[in-house]
Write a structure and sequence with these properties.
By secondary structure, this protein is α/β, with parallel strands linked by helices. The chain has 9 helices and 15 strands. Helix content is 29%, strand content 25%. Strand 8, helix 3 and strand 9 form a beta-alpha-beta unit. Helix 2 crosses helix 3.
Length: 320
């Protein structure tokens, strides 16, 4: 089979589209022919060498995709079933071996493209506003990088739950993307953004900030009201500065860390949360922008496209 690989860390130039052996499946596993593969910033970090990576050279990145079962050693899943996954390594290939406990059935009216576009980012958005902080009707929510994949879905779910949503983006051009997701306000992340937020809240501050940028963490605390909550779930903008626990004591503010893998702990949780997400999409609560597609052999172009922030849509790799 063909796979997008790399044998050393670095820029997109290290990527190679080569022939490697097709995986051999074990008991309770299936062999899936990938039809669409989700590309995420985590795959960029893996290629650069600053994120966890399984296997040995040639490395295969990717954890998310969807396709059709071509072999099965599972009592639960048969050949021909349509399956998606969000936490299985070595996805950037024509075929992937998947434990049946990590296989997510795709509803009949959801295609491969949609299934591989929403699971990782959609399940992240879902746990953030239900588990990390259960957003309530009437709360004011601020979302960093709201024009990104997680941000767009998080904005829509928070609005569905009755919150007032303020979305931030570094790009002026992407503010309309935030408003298209039904946010109440869209603000550019500039030198004046904190004063704009305080003005919008009549100087009261924010109930909960979802911060996946990292380097903005202390700014997030500044615009959070006393007894408010900051949810830290990523570092797309760099490492955060250390948080002084005395500040938390003096202001009664709360800091919560968030990681999807803390919630996708078993087959039941994985499927239950996926069903909820698919239902939100099917009933129109969450709308997903049309993804940008590259052939798997064009992985270098896809990585460069994602790194340059050229799109506010999901990027998919389609096996040739």
């Amino acid at each position: 089979m063909k796979a997008l690989t790399f044998s050393k860390f670095g820029t997109s130039d290290v990527l190679e589209y080569i022939e490697i052996p097709t995986p051999e499946i074990k008991n309770n596993e299936i062999l899936l022919e990938n039809k669409a593969i989700g590309l995420n910033f985590a795959d960029i970090y893996r290629r650069r060498g600053n994120y966890h990576l399984k296997g040995k050279p040639p490395f295969i990145a990717g954890y998310e995709g969807a396709g059709i079962v071509v072999k099965s050693k599972s009592d639960k899943i048969k050949v021909g079933d349509n399956i998606a996954y969000t936490d299985v390594p070595f996805a950037n290939a024509e075929f992937i071996a998947i434990p049946d406990t990590q296989a997510i059935p795709i509803p009949e009216n959801v295609d491969y493209s949609l299934a591989s576009s929403v699971l990782l980012q959609g399940l992240t958005a879902h746990y953030l506003c239900n588990d990390s902080h259960n957003v309530k009707d009437g709360e004011t929510v601020l979302i960093h990088a709201a024009s990104g994949g997680v941000g767009q879905i998080l904005t829509q779910i928070c609005k569905f739950k009755g919150a007032t949503v303020i979305g931030l983006s570094r790009s002026q051009e992407k503010l309309n993307t935030i408003l298209d997701c039904k946010a109440d306000y869209a603000i550019q992340l500039n030198d004046d953004w904190k004063s704009q937020v305080m003005e919008l809240t009549n100087q009261k501050g924010i109930d909960v900030v979802f911060d996946g940028v990292g380097s903005t963490l202390m700014d997030s605390f500044e615009i959070t009201k006393d007894c408010g909550h900051v949810v830290f779930f990523g570092m797309s903008g760099g490492d955060p500065k250390p948080v002084d626990p005395r500040m938390l004591l003096n202001t009664s503010k709360t800091l919560t860390g968030g990681d999807l893998w803390s919630y996708l702990t078993n087959e039941k949780e994985r499927k239950k949360r996926a069903v909820i997400l698919f239902d939100l999409i099917e009933n129109g609560t969450v709308k997903i922008k049309e993804p940008v597609q590259f052939r798997l052999s064009e992985g270098k172009k896809a990585h460069e496209f994602l790194e340059k922030g050229k799109s506010s849509s999901k990027i998919l790799l389609i096996p040739d």
